[in-house]
Structures are given as structure tokens and as C-alpha cells.
Specification:
Strand 1 and strand 2 form a beta hairpin. This protein has four domains: 51 residues, no CATH class; 112 residues, DNA polymerase, domain 1; 187 residues, Intergrase catalytic core (hpI Integrase, Chain A); 64 residues, Arc Repressor Mutant, subunit A (Orthogonal Bundle), CATH 1.10.10.10. The protein is built from 18 helices and ten strands. By secondary structure, it is mainly α. The C terminus is likely disordered. Keywords: DNA recombination, DNA-binding, Transcription, Transcription regulation. This is Integrase.
């Protein structure tokens, strides 16, 4: 095979550049070309052609001419087999909607730098339509809507991963996206419904036994919607009173595909006696429905389905939309079906269940995930915590306080004299100068001690008159409110 020779091409504006073939891409099969910058003179382009040929022959041909989209295409060709379909769809959507409009097909990857990316991230957080190169924010039909920080972070990590591979393969010298700083992750505080708020929701849902049982199992198991949607009767362990959660449902193009759980874990969850009774009642209901159709309920039929014979899994999006309408009618704060997982985690921890058990029930790899994303502040737990602290903190003893200052020592002495009858109720205390001489203190110290006794309600003190004893000291009584 003859060695590549390349050629010099001329632009319509009269400028020249060299073009040399660098073989074919082993992944895409497309031919790769090295191109020199445009020059005004043809001899200069010829010299550039010889230089490019030398680089190809020595194996030192630069690969820095790749565009941003070419870098992403090469990255996706490698990582796609290792990612789930949902991950691939979401990543391709972000590239299509936010990377491609901004950088186009011809933007060189080597031109990207950290400052450019951080400015772009800030623009997306002010308005997601800034993905377009030219956007008129003053147009009447336009409303600025910021892109969530979580989505911007996903774009950042997609670019970082792609450029990391490009550096590894020798296409680029520096991973510029890795030098950029993504926006901070803004965590939405969980806002699960309370048991009182869920009561009318469940009561309405039970009008349809299939739908009511679905919500009940979602609450009891605190499972993800996809896990409950593909649950089969063979997963229910009647003797053990447990249910196996080993698969999840992924909806795509109107169909539900059974895939592994999020962390590829299988868990055998315990069920309470009431839930087992409800499951038995629900199974009899399913068998009667199939019997009316002239078929038998299959041994591995789905628990929940929109098909009358339970032959197909319930679509996760259908469950989400139906719950949103139900929650909206009952005026819940959060209308997301996922909030029921928050409810389960919060109620379990509030009831004193240890974190490790709650973590395992929800299928989390780390307990920190359970605490950060799935538990809400509970007034009941806060009240219980307050009661526990109140039992451990030393009780206040207003009568037993060690005096430190002169006026406090005098106050304690006078209070003791009132309590032992030296100064009975109705009597008057000596004059300030007499008390000062007796206790070897200043008149100001006596005045402050008298004011302290007055604040305790023991004496009545008026200017230019002796203080009169009104009552003996008694610690304040804490009276609980009725009810």
C-alpha cells in the first residue's frame, strides 16, 4: 500500500492549506485527516504538507484537531456498553439539548478552557435557553427558566469523562473540564406527607383495590416505583411473610423492561401480618378477575398491571401520573410518588429503627444517603428528643445557688433571715446604712440586694422608705397546660 502523500487545497477566498490522511479510526471506521492552518501562499502550504507527512511517518501526528462532538462520540462508543439504557438516554439528551447547540459540530476540543465552561455553567443556571448561541431574552414570548444545578453538574461530568479519555488516548494534552468547577449541588429538602395527610389519600385509593394495594405495598416496603411495578406473585414468600425485591422496571417507548435494581442488589423484605392478609385478599380478587375472563392467574403473574389478566407489568410512568393527580386532589405538599420513600425512611427513623436497618430496607449503599436525601425533620421525633433531654438535664433549683458577689452574698443572707423568721412577713428591714455597717458592704451593695429580693417578690421596696417583707421564698411552680 502506498504511503499517504496528502494534497494542498485552495479555499474560494484564495488561501491554501495542507491535508494529509492519518489512517482510519479503529472505532468508527472513518478516515482521519490532519489539516494545517490556512496560509496566503501555496509554497507555505506545501511545506506544511511535508511537515504533516513527516509526523505521520514518525507516528507523532497531532490529534488535537478533534471537535467537541467527536470527543463525545468516541467517549460514548466506549462507555455505552457499561451504562444502563436510562443513563444513556439522559446523557444523550443533555448532549443534544445543551452541548451540541453551544459548541456545534466544528468547535475544536482544544479551544475549550475552564473559564469558558464555568461561564457557560453560570449562563445555564440563569436561563437554560442560553444553550443557544443567540438568544433574545427580551422577547415577549420568552420566559427565562434556569437549568437545575443537578443537570448542569451532569453536563460537567459528561465533558470531564469524555476529555479524560481523550487525554488518555493522546488526542488532547489537558483535561480542561476537570479544571473547571461545577455548581454546588442544591439538595431539595425531603418533604414527605404525614400519616394524617396520607389517610385521605389511601382512603380514596382503596376504591380501586389494585391501585390501593399498589400504594400500600409502596409505603410498607419503601421500595422504588420500578421495583414494585415488576413485582410478581412468585416473589411473595407466604410461609416466611416476606417479599423478594430483585428486579426493577424501566419504561421505554411504551414498554416496561425488567432490569436489575439500582445497585444490583437483592433484598428479602419482611411483611407484617396485616400486609400478608391484604395480599391474600388481593390475590383472591385477582383470581376472580381472571376467572371471569376464562383464564387462570399465572403463577408468575405481576402483582400490579393494567392488563386484565396481569400479564404485563404496570408502567412506572402511569403510576407516577396517577399518584400526582391523587395527591393534587388531596392537596398534598409533595405530589411525587417518590415522596413515599421519604415517608418510609422518616417514619422508621422516628420510631427508633436503627439506621443500618433503614438503609438496607431502602436499598442504599451508605447510610449517609438515607440521612441526606430521604429523611425529613419530624416534629414527633423533635418532641421526643426534647423530652429525653429534659429528663437528663439537671433540674433548676432556684433556692440553692452559690453566691459569688457581695450583693449575692447579702441577698442570700437576707433571704435566710426572712425564711427563719428573723424578719417575719409584714416586718420592715433595717435601713440601708445599718445593713451596710452590719455586713461591711457599701450602701450601693445593699440597694442591689434589696432590688434582687424585690424581683423575687419577697419584699416591697420604695424610695426613702424601709423595705417591707411581703412573703417567704418559694421556688416557682411549673404548671402543665390541661390536655
Amino acid at each position: 500500500m502506498a504511503a499517504p502523500q496528502g494534497h494542498v487545497e485552495q479555499h474560494k477566498n484564495g488561501r491554501f492549506r495542507a491535508v494529509v490522511s492519518n489512517g482510519r479510526d479503529p472505532v468508527t471506521g472513518k478516515r482521519r485527516f490532519l489539516k494545517s492552518p490556512w496560509t496566503a501562499e501555496e509554497p507555505d502550504a506545501e511545506i506544511a504538507r511535508l511537515q504533516l507527512l513527516l509526523q505521520v511517518q514518525q507516528g507523532k501526528a497531532t490529534k488535537g484537531n478533534l471537535t467537541v462532538m467527536e470527543v463525545l462520540d468516541k467517549y460514548r462508543a466506549v462507555v455505552n456498553p457499561n451504562h444502563k439504557r436510562r443513563t444513556i438516554v439522559r446523557r444523550d439528551q443533555l448532549i443534544r439539548d445543551y452541548v451540541m447547540p453551544r459548541f456545534g459540530k466544528d468547535f475544536k476540543a482544544a479551544k475549550i478552557d475552564a473559564e469558558m465552561l464555568e461561564n457557560y455553567y453560570a449562563m445555564l443556571q440563569s436561563c437554560k435557553d442560553n444553550a443557544q448561541l443567540r438568544m433574545n431574552h427580551r422577547a415577549k414570548e420568552h420566559t427565562c427558566e434556569p437549568l437545575a444545578s443537578s443537570s448542569v453538574r451532569q453536563i460537567h461530568f459528561i465533558l470531564t469523562g469524555a476529555f479524560k479519555r481523550a487525554v488518555k488516548w493522546g488526542y488532547l494534552d489537558v483535561n480542561q473540564p476537570a479544571l473547571a468547577e461545577p455548581p454546588a449541588l442544591e439538595l431539595n429538602l425531603p418533604d414527605p406527607p404525614t400519616p394524617e395527610e396520607l389517610a385521605p389519600v389511601l382512603n380514596e385509593a382503596w376504591r380501586d383495590l389494585n391501585w390501593g394495594m399498589f400504594l400500600w405495598m409502596t409505603m410498607i416496603t419503601a421500595s422504588r416505583r420500578g421495583e414494585i411495578c415488576v413485582a410478581r406473585w412468585t416473589d411473595v414468600k407466604w410461609k416466611q411473610a416476606k417479599i423478594m425485591v430483585a428486579r426493577a422496571g424501566d419504561q421505554y417507548a411504551g414498554k416496561v423492561e425488567e432490569i436489575t435494581t439500582k445497585r444490583k442488589l437483592q433484598k428479602l423484605q419482611s411483611l407484617d401480618p396485616l400486609t400478608m392478609e391484604l395480599l391474600q385478599m388481593y390475590r383472591e380478587y385477582c383470581e376472580r378477575q381472571c376467572k371471569r375472563l376464562g383464564v387462570e392467574l399465572a403463577r408468575d403473574a405481576f402483582l400490579f398491571s393494567t392488563e386484565p389478566d396481569f400479564s404485563a407489568a404496570l408502567k412506572p410512568n402511569t403510576a407516577t401520573q396517577r399518584y400526582r393527580r391523587l395527591a393534587t386532589r388531596n392537596k398534598l405538599r409533595s405530589t411525587r410518588l417518590h415522596s413515599i420513600r421519604h415517608y418510609g425512611a422518616t417514619e422508621l427513623l422516628s420510631a427508633g429503627v436503627d439506621l443500618r436497618t433503614v438503609q438496607g430496607r431502602l436499598g442504599h449503599a451508605q447510610g449517609s444517603t438515607t440521612l441526606r436525601f430521604y429523611t425529613a425533620w419530624s416534629e414527633r421525633s423533635d418532641a421526643a428528643a426534647s423530652a429525653i433531654l429534659a429528663q437528663t438535664v439537671p433540674r433548676p433549683d432556684f433556692a440553692d445557688r452559690t453566691p459569688r458577689h457581695a450583693w449575692e452574698i447579702l441577698t442570700a443572707s437576707l433571704r435566710h433571715s426572712i425564711e427563719n423568721g428573723t424578719y417575719p412577713v409584714g416586718s420592715e428591714l433595717p435601713l440601708a446604712r445599718e445593713l451596710a455597717a452590719e455586713h461591711n458592704v457599701s450602701v450601693g451593695t445593699v440597694s442591689r440586694a434589696t432590688a434582687a429580693l424585690r424581683d423575687l417578690g419577697l419584699v416591697e421596696a420604695k424610695q426613702y422608705r424601709r423595705a417591707k417583707v411581703m412573703r417567704q421564698f418559694r421556688p416557682p411552680t411549673i404548671v402543665e397546660e390541661a390536655g
